[in-house]
Write a sequence for this structure.
């Protein structure tokens, strides 16, 4: 896995933490609801801090709670200064589709 490769490459013995929410909250995948997994590694010899995240949105519709969480993460984003707004308006009920 990509996680194991990064841990091995780092070589410090530091491992990724694992935090699941929704369908993955208890380490079990529940196919009936949305959820995700966030993995974080920090304090390694090569990787100072890194993260890997997976989000699965069932039925393609964001809940109000998830939309608020995503918006909250965008508040700290950096403006490129080129006058273009790269931000998105994400709200409850939006149809979600991901680019591959």
């Amino acid at each position: 896995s990509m996680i194991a490769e990064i841990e091995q490459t780092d070589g410090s013995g530091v491992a990724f933490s694992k935090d699941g929410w929704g369908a993955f909250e208890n380490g079990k995948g529940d196919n009936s609801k949305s959820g995700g997994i966030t993995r974080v590694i920090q304090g390694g010899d090569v990787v100072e801090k890194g993260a890997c995240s997976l989000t699965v949105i069932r039925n393609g519709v964001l809940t109000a709670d998830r939309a608020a969480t995503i918006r909250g993460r965008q508040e700290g984003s950096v403006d490129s200064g080129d006058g273009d707004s790269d931000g998105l308006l994400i709200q409850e009920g939006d149809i979600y589709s991901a680019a591959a």
